[in-house]
C-alpha cells in the first residue's frame, strides 16, 4: 500500500469512526481473490466509539474483474442486509469511493479463521465438529433465505421475468453463443436443465457462491460467511445445490455437504430455522445447474488468459477443469454411455 | 528428424525434477505455483502423447453422425446446435460420441477424475 493511500485511508477511517486520530500500524495484502483485492489492516483508533485497536479488512476491486459480479459498494450493501438478518458475516463498517483509495472499497471487521478448502480437508481439527458445522451452515442459509424482495438498498439486484432456472439456461446459452468454441456436453446439460426446470414459487436473497472455501472457520466452528459479490434474488435451492455439488467437495465425495459433512446435517439445520424440509430430488436439479454454471465461469476465467488480456497460469489451468465438469454433467443427466 | 528425447519425454523428466528436487525446498507460499506448473506440464505432456489421432477419430465420428463433412471445429458447433434443438435427446449414438469425446478430454486435462470410474484412463 502506498504511503499516500495509507494517509488518505487514515483520514477516511477517522472521519467515519468519529475518532480524533487513526494510525494504520500494519497493512498487508491477503492471498486469493482473482476478482478483488483484500488488505488486512490493523489500526490504532484514538477517541470515538471504536477507540482502541481496530482489526479490519479492506476490500477493493482488483485491476480486472468478472463482469457479472457486483461492485464493492453493492457488496457492502449486501453484507449490511445479511448482517442485519443475523447471518454470520464480517461486520460491515464503512464504504468509500475512488477518491480515497483509487478504487471503490469497503472496510469490514476482520473475522478469524481459515477458508482454504484444501486445508479444511487435511486439518480435521478446523471447524470443530464437522456435522455440527454443516448443520450450522444450513441454519445460516435459512436465515439468508428469509430475506425477500423488495429490500431497501438492494434495488440494484435485477428481478428477471423468467424463472431462475430458465434464466440460468438463457444466460449460459447466451455466453456460449458468443464464445469461440462450442461445448456439446454443456449443451446437453443445458437441454436437460431446460426440460427439467422447476418453478420457483418465491424468490429469496441467495448468496450464489456459498461453498467450502468461501466461509471462515476456527477450531471451534464457523466465524464468517464471505464473498457476497454474486448474490441475487433466486431460488433458495440454488445455494443448496451449489454447496452440495460434487465439484465443490474437494475430493471428499462421500461427504456430500461441501466435502465437510452429511447432507442430512445440512438439511436438518436448514429445516430448523426455515421450517422447510428439503428433498434430495429437488436439490439435485441445482447440483446439475451448479456444474454447468461453474463450467461457464471456468471458461470465462480461462478466456481472460487465452485472450491475452491477463496472462496467468492459474486462469489458464481453470479452463482445464471444464472437461471433468462436463463428464460429471453427463453422468448426472443420463448422458453417460456405459 | 527431431532429436530424442521428444517434447513429451522432456516435459516428463522436467516435471520430475520440479516435483522431487525443487518442490521440497520451496517456501510455503510458492508451493502452489510449483504445483500449478507441474499440472500444466502434465497436461501438455499428455496432449503430445495422444497426438492428433483422437481428434481425427472424433472428426470422422461426428461427420458420420451429422451426415455432413467439415473440420472438427465446425462439426462440433453443429453438434452443439442440434443438441440444443433437442434432436439428439433420445439418440444412443450421439450419446456415445458425446461421452467418449468428453472422456478423451478428461484423459488429457484431468486424468485423476477418471480414477474409480468405470471408464479408466
UniProtKB/TrEMBL annotation, chain A:
Residue ranges occupied by any Aminoglycoside phosphotransferase domain in the UniProt entry: 29-273
Gene3D superfamilies attached to this UniProt entry: 3.90.1200.10, Phosphorylase Kinase, domain 1
Pfam families, A to Z: APH
InterPro entries listed in its UniProt record: ACAD10_11_N, AGP_Transferase, Aminoglycoside_PTrfase, Kinase-like_dom_sf
PANTHER family recorded: AMINOGLYCOSIDE PHOSPHOTRANSFERASE-RELATED-RELATED, BLR2944 PROTEIN
Protein name (record): Phosphotransferase family protein
Species whose genome carries this gene: Corallococcus praedator
Higher taxonomy: Bacteria, Pseudomonadati, Myxococcota, Myxococcia, Myxococcales
UniProtKB/TrEMBL annotation, chain B:
Pfam families found in the cross-reference section: DUF6285
Domain DUF6285: 24-112
InterPro entries: DUF6285
Domain of life: Bacteria
Protein name per the record: DUF6285 domain-containing protein
Species the sequence originates in: Corallococcus praedator
Taxonomy of the source species: Bacteria, Pseudomonadati, Myxococcota, Myxococcia, Myxococcales
Amino acid at each position: 500500500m502506498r504511503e499516500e493511500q495509507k494517509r488518505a485511508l487514515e483520514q477516511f477511517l477517522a472521519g467515519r469512526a468519529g475518532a480524533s486520530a487513526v494510525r494504520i500500524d500494519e497493512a498487508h495484502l491477503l492471498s486469493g481473490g482473482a476478482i478483488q483485492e483484500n488488505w488486512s489492516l490493523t489500526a490504532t483508533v484514538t477517541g470515538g466509539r471504536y477507540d482502541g485497536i481496530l482489526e479490519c479488512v479492506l476490500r477493493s476491486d482488483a485491476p480486472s474483474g468478472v463482469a457479472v459480479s457486483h461492485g464493492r459498494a453493492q457488496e457492502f450493501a449486501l453484507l449490511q442486509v445479511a448482517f442485519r438478518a443475523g447471518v454470520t458475516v464480517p461486520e460491515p463498517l464503512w464504504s468509500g469511493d475512488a477518491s480515497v483509495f483509487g478504487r471503490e472499497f469497503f472496510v469490514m471487521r476482520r473475522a478469524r479463521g481459515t477458508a482454504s478448502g484444501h486445508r479444511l480437508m487435511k486439518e480435521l481439527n478446523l471447524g470443530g465438529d464437522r456435522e455440527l458445522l454443516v448443520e450450522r451452515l444450513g441454519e445460516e442459509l435459512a436465515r439468508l433465505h428469509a430475506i425477500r424482495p423488495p429490500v431497501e438498498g438492494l434495488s440494484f439486484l435485477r428481478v428477471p421475468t423468467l424463472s431462475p432456472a430458465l434464466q440460468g439456461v438463457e444466460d449460459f446459452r447466451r455466453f456460449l453463443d458468443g464464445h469461440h468454441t462450442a461445448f456439446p456436453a454443456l449443451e446437453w446439460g443445458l437441454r436437460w436443465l431446460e426440460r427439467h426446470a422447476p418453478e420457483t414459487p418465491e424468490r429469496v436473497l441467495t448468496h450464489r457462491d456459498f461453498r467450502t472455501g468461501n466461509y471462515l472457520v476456527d477450531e471451534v466452528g464457523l466465524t464468517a460467511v464471505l464473498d457476497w459479490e454474486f448474490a441475487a434474488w433466486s431460488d433458495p435451492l440454488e445455494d443448496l445445490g451449489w454447496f452440495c455439488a460434487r465439484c465443490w467437495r474437494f475430493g471428499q465425495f462421500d461427504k456430500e455437504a461441501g466435502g465437510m459433512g452429511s447432507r442430512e446435517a445440512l438439511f436438518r439445520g436448514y429445516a430448523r430455522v426455515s421450517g422447510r424440509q428439503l428433498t434430495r430430488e429437488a436439490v439435485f436439479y441445482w447440483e446439475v445447474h451448479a456444474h454447468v454454471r461453474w463450467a461457464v465461469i471456468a471458461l470465462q476465467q480461462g478466456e481472460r488468459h487465452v485472450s491475452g488480456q491477463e496472462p496467468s497460469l492459474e486462469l489458464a489451468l481453470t479452463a482445464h477443469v471444464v472437461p471433468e465438469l462436463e463428464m460429471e454433467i453427463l453422468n448426472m443427466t443420463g448422458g453417460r454411455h456405459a | 528428424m527431431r532429436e530424442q528425447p521428444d517434447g513429451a519425454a522432456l516435459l516428463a523428466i522436467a516435471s520430475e525434477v520440479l516435483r522431487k528436487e525443487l518442490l521440497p525446498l520451496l517456501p510455503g507460499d510458492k508451493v502452489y505455483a510449483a504445483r500449478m506448473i507441474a499440472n500444466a506440464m502434465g497436461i501438455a505432456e499428455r496432449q503430445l502423447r495422444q497426438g492428433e489421432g483422437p481428434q481425427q477419430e472424433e472428426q470422422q465420428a461426428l461427420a458420420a453422425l451429422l451426415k455432413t463433412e467439415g473440420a472438427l471445429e465446425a462439426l462440433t458447433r453443429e453438434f452443439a446446435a442440434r443438441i440444443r434443438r433437442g434432436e439428439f435427446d433420445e439418440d444412443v449414438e450421439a450419446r456415445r460420441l458425446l461421452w467418449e469425446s468428453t472422456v478423451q478430454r478428461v484423459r488429457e486435462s484431468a486424468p485423476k477424475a477418471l480414477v474409480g470410474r468405470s471408464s479408466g484412463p
